[in-house]
Task: structure prediction
Amino acid sequence: ATAAEAERSHRAGLRRLIALTTVDPTNGVVARLSNRIKFALATSPYQNVPGLLADARLKAIGDGIDAAGDPFAVRSAAEFERLRDRVRADVAPAMQRAVDAAGEILIRHGEVTQRLPGAPAEVRADLTEQLAGLVYPGFIAATPARWYLRLPVYLQAMLRRLDAGSSARADQAMETINDLEDEYAERCNAFPPGPLPPEVAEIGWLLEELRVGLFAQSLGTAVPVSAKRIRTALVAL
Result:
């Protein structure tokens, strides 16, 4: 119905076609996993480990499609074959990286989850909601490549926040985050159900980076970020 929906569907179709017409590297990826990562994968929110691995393969293919240029420009069999050949050359190592990263993410996710019951109620509610927005069934393929490798940092920042305990500075930071997230939620609710436009979703990732800057500054942010910058982006929507 819209150009944005057409582009999303086109990319998803290309991803599916490449998955159907290339060798599945899953067995080779699993053979190279450490026991530490294998145990972590079993704790994921996915229905089962094969479901997680299938999602990681989709991520590897999707990221390869994005790296190759504009997916919407692929309009013929010859163009598709060129794209497929380019993408499949890196699918196995890309999937390996995605699964290894998922294991590290799930290890930190488990650490945060174990410590949440001992946190103050307001902090526990905030972190529980944040966790649900970062790690969920399908999060591997759904998280853009730019931000996927930042997920362990966001989870580590949660652990730092739990270590720090209560303080006036932490309370002020939480108030800032709550205000911005309320405004962001209001903007998101104005869009129809389904994936948000990239420029809207990007603000969500800036909020995650702001959390790092406010609660775990020593970890560093991936981009310059501030409450003012996020408010400016919200107004621009």
Observations:
- The CA atoms of residues 175 and 181 lie 10 Å apart.
- The chain has a mean pLDDT of 95.
- Residues 77-115 form the longest helix (39 residues).
